[in-house]
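for the writeup, i need someone to sanity check this before i put it in the appendix. the sequnce is what the collaborator sent (i think, or maybe the updated version? ugh). structure was predicted straight from it, no edits. if anything looks off just tell me and ill rerun, i have time this weekend
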Amino acid sequence: MAEMGPATSFVFCPKGPYSLAASIRYLEGFAPAAYDRESAASLEMAFCVDGYWDPVAVRVHEETGAIVGTVHGGDTLGPAVIAAGVEQVERILSLDIDGRGFPDIARRDPVVAQLQSRYPGLRPVCFWSPYEAAAWSVIGQRIRIVQAAAIKARITSEHGETIDVDGRMVRAFPNPAKLAQLATIKGLSETKLQRLRGVAAAALGGTLGAARLRSLPRSQALEELIAIPGIGPFSAELILLRGAGDPDFTPTADPRLARATAIAYDMKAPPNAADIAEISEVWKPYRTWVALLFRIMLEDETHEIAGQAITRTPGL
């Protein structure tokens, strides 16, 4: 948990291997965030606080193994909103999980050992919220990833919530109430616009709350997410794993994980879902984390995500 300092400062003490620099490098290639770092040493993010929907901006940097940060959001932010925002950052960086057991997987699986060595200290960097993960899933259906990222960035620029960070104005993706009121969005069909309104309604109704999703049995969480119009099995897994930050689930609806597994284990053909489930048993309780390493390895080896023309729902 975070240790709150005076005003809006906080400190995280990661449990287990962690590198903020690795997170920053990952975000540079993370299309949904459209992240362009100002420096190699600090990470800045702007988002609406999950459940409260007040906009905040957060900057974090690393100091001798600790992650130090500051919350910006104006004088009207209450203590509960600030605390929730800090918890959100902790979840975004996967620092809410005790990672001291993660190196143990390397002793059980030499392939994972190689990946941990190749990407030291990397944990999943989540969407700023399940709400943004769901919105990204709808925006990106059946268009190029670069197009989806441009549309999301334009929505943020034109309709996003504004935060003053030491005299510099930054914007967060619009809160659900504002998103639901948009009559048109350039580049989006009426069907996608209606689905975004459904996402906004789900967020306002509490369905997309990160803590709630993490508290439910996974089957129930996925079922409720799939019930949102426009959210299929692939998107539901994305929202749960990379929006709510569930650390221990094998994303069986993701075909790229199968291709990555085939490459990593030198298989003649991609394994089926049952085979992947069996292989990933030794990854517990960090199956999501290991799956991310496989996905990054696949992209580094094939560049298929950066080079693909069409995607049903953009991956991570």
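The beta strands are 3-4, 9-12, 42-48, 55-63, 66-72, 161-165, 168-172. The longest strand covers residues 55-63.
thx in advance!!
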